[in-house]
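Ops channel
N.P.: pipeline sanity check, posting one input/output pair.
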């Protein structure tokens, strides 16, 4: 017995426009970074490049998630977005590593930087990134995939602020090492966002309990339903960041099918309203099975006749 609750919006359209804006900003920042000899600006351009890839992959993931379930993909394609979010997080780590290495080199060499040009390009980049981040703000609440892109854009906006501050300092003081310091700060900011996304994506792929749900509270809420006598063989996991699921054996008194249907609805409403669990599978029992623990151990069937190829 199950119930679905799916979230979604016009995220694909916003991502498409975001891709166009990102490509334009990338071209401007690469040209400006080369002409001004600014590592901070080129570092930001490198992150903008990963933004473009992230936007493109996320657009693809959103389109995939819209595909219906099938006999081969009974849960649909929701986890395509989770995998892409993890790829995005790893790409952020890689680009941050490159930036940190180049910044380390510049602490010793400190080449001259054109602060004026650096400032102009950084302001353009800031405006574009703030626009994209603000546009995706509402969408990032229901999808880890969109959240990974939002962090890309937000990280870029913060990086642009850093570049602007660095450019102003360089213009008035000629302290060119500030360029390298700003690059390091940019890297640390985007690494923080990458780790958060990677950790959440990994939890979903490992089918761990969602971070905002406590199993003990789920059990107590189910047992609080008058007709429920006990709960066991409980599993709570996420199909994607916006789609939580639960399956469980529920012990009730012997009753008619219509009465069991009312109990099922009570369980589903409780889980949806209190915990945001929109996909529920319940197996009713009148007598508890041999395994009396809350969590039943999963094991492969050792019966030879069930082994493929034998």
């Amino acid at each position: 017995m199950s119930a679905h609750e799916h979230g979604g919006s016009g995220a694909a359209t916003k991502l498409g426009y975001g891709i166009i804006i990102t490509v334009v900003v990338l071209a401007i920042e690469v040209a400006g970074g080369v002409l001004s000899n600014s590592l901070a600006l080129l570092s930001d351009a490198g992150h903008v490049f990963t933004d473009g890839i992230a936007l493109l992959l996320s657009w693809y993931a959103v389109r995939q998630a819209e595909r219906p379930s099938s006999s081969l993909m009974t849960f649909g394609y929701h986890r395509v977005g989770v995998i892409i979010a993890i790829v995005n997080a790893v790409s952020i780590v890689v680009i941050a590593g490159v930036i940190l290495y180049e910044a380390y080199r510049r602490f010793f060499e400190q080449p001259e930087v054109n602060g004026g040009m650096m400032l102009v390009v950084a302001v353009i980049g800031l405006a574009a990134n703030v626009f994209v981040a603000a546009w995706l703000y509402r969408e990032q609440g229901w999808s880890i995939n969109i959240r990974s892109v939002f962090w890309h854009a937000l990280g870029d906006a913060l990086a642009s602020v850093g570049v602007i501050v660095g450019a102003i300092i360089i213009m008035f003081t000629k302290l060119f090492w500030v360029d390298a310091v700003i690059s390091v700060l940019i890297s640390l900011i985007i690494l923080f966002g990458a780790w958060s996304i990677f950790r959440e994506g990994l939890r979903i792929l490992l089918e761990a309990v969602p971070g905002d749900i406590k199993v003990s509270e789920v059990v107590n809420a189910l047992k609080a339903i008058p007709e429920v006598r006990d709960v066991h063989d409980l599993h709570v996991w996420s199909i994607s960041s916006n789609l939580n699921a639960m399956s469980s054996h529920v012990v009730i008194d012997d009753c008619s099918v219509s009465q069991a249907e009312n109990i099922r609805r009570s369980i589903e409403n409780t889980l949806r309203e209190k915990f945001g669990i929109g996909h529920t599978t319940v197996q009713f029992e009148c007598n508890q099975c041999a395994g009396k623990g809350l969590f039943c151990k999963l094991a492969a069937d050792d019966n030879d006749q069930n082994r493929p190829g034998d």
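N.P.: looks fine end to end. The CA atoms of residues 82 and 238 lie 10 Å apart.
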